[in-house]
């Protein structure tokens, strides 16, 4: 932002305050000469048709408070869309950007008449509601440090909690890209020095993070879009495998209404059931997803996924085979 524009915005804000403003008081507040202030006030009148007057009683003031300095050509609809987008991002992605978003939107709102902004806030907060489901505890400082690491290609050291092993480990990572899966699962994807391969790490499971001064050269064969293309949910390991899952007629509508994977092919059957075919990497997340549909889903292939689901179902059956509370 230019110094002149910044000064005009400050003058505009002071003129809307309840205090009486003179050329001298404005010059003192902005630490410029009185002549500079008078030139700025004339600029507002001549270039932007500002309804400015100066009286002994009120000093410099706007005769029409609905007038706005057109520094940003933002319509009511555009600001409303930003407001909704900010609330959606805050609801589904944690609080990493919450403070900055609220600050930016409040500054943009100053360009709208006060009542219009009040109405927009009421509509967005009272009539359009968002729920992100289970909340995560995302540390904004860790997230922003990873942003820096990805941008500057710097290696990071981190203390990481692995939920599947209920263990904490020290890792060095070349941070390639940040990825928010389904709005509520923030990941950093990069080259893990310990495993010597591309790995995913849940950002909210990082207990401590340090950006190192050393830089890295990304693997030229890694392409983020290609990498994400074949995964199901967030499991990236393994070779691509063809998958076929049959869904009965009552369950089929819930599968049919969404696109679950870029490679998916829905094969419709005469009885209302369908078979979902796709090529994916990793089977554990797919197993959990299939089990969520209960008896309404049956894995046809590959055999590895059939066995994973069968073992899980048998284990569950044993857990519930005896009456009473399972310890």
What descriptive keywords fit this protein?
327 residues, alpha+beta, SH3 type barrels, 4 domains, 11 helices
Envelope shape? elongated
Secondary-structure-derived class:
alpha+beta
Count of the separate structural domains: 4
Any idea of the CATH topology of the largest domain? SH3 type barrels
Helix content: 25-40%
The largest β sheet comes out as: 5 strands, antiparallel
SSE layout:
Layout: H1 3-15, H2 23-30, H3 34-48, E1 52-55, E2 59-62, H4 76-93, H5 98-109, H6 114-126, H7 140-152, E3 154-162, E4 167-181, E5 185-192, E6 197-202, E7 206-215, H8 224-229, E8 241-247, H9 252-256, E9 265-268, E10 274-280, H10 284-291, E11 297-301, H11 303-319
Antiparallel strand pairs: 1-2, 3-4, 3-7, 4-5, 5-6, 8-10, 8-11, 9-10
Helix pairs in contact: 2-3, 4-5, 4-6, 10-11
Can you tell me about this structure?
The chain is of the alpha+beta class. It has four domains: 3-62, Arc Repressor Mutant, subunit A; 76-126, no CATH class; 140-222, SH3 type barrels (Roll), CATH 2.30.30; 241-319. Helices cover 39% and strands 24% of the residues. The protein is built from eleven helices and eleven strands. The chain has helices spanning 3-15, 23-30, 34-48, 76-93, 98-109, 114-126, 140-152, 224-229, 252-256, 284-291, 303-319, and strands spanning 52-55, 59-62, 154-162, 167-181, 185-192, 197-202, 206-215, 241-247, 265-268, 274-280, 297-301. The strands form three sheets. It has a five-stranded antiparallel beta sheet, with helices on one face. It has a four-stranded antiparallel beta sheet with strand order 9-10-8-11. It has a two-stranded antiparallel sheet with strand order 1-2. A hairpin with a 3-residue loop joins strand 4 and strand 5 (185-192). The longest helix has 18 residues, at 76-93. The protein is elongated, with a radius of gyration of 29 Å. The mean pLDDT is 82.
């Amino acid at each position: 932002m230019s110094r002149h524009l910044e000064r005009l915005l400050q003058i505009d804000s002071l003129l809307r305050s309840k205090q009486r403003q003179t050329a001298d008081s404005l010059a003192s507040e902005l630490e410029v000469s009185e002549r500079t202030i008078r030139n700025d006030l004339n600029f507002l009148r001549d270039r932007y048709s500002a309804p400015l007057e100066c009286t002994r009683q009120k000093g410099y003031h706007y005769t029409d408070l609905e007038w706005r300095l057109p520094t940003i050509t933002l319509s009511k609809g555009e600001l409303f869309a930003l407001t909704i987008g900010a609330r959606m991002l805050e609801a589904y992605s944690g609080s990493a950007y919450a403070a900055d978003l609220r600050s930016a939107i409040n500054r943009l709102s100053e360009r709208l008449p006060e009542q219009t902004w009040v109405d927009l806030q009421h509509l967005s907060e009272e009539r359009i509601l968002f729920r992100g489901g289970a909340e995560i505890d995302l540390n904004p400082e860790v997230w922003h440090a990873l942003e820096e690491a990805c941008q500057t290609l710097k290696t990071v050291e981190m203390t990481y909690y692995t939920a599947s092993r209920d263990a904490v480990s020290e890792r060095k990572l070349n941070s390639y890209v940040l990825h928010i899966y389904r709005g509520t699962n923030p990941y950093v994807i990069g080259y893990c020095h310990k495993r010597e391969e591309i790995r995913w790490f849940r950002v909210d499971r990082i207990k401590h993070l340090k950006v190192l001064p050393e830089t890295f050269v990304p693997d030229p064969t890694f392409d983020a879009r290609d990498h994400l293309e074949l995964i199901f949910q967030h499991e990236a390991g393994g070779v691509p495998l063809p998958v076929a899952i049959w869904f009965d007629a009552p369950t089929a509508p819930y599968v049919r209404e969404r696109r679950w994977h870029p490679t998916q092919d829905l094969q419709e059957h005469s009885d209302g059931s369908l078979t979902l075919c796709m090529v994916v990497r990793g089977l554990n997340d797919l197993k959990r997803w299939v089990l969520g549909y209960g008896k309404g889903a049956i894995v046809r292939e590959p055999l590895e996924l059939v066995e994973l689901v069968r073992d899980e179902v048998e284990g569950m059956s044993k857990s519930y085979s005896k009456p009473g509370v399972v310890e």
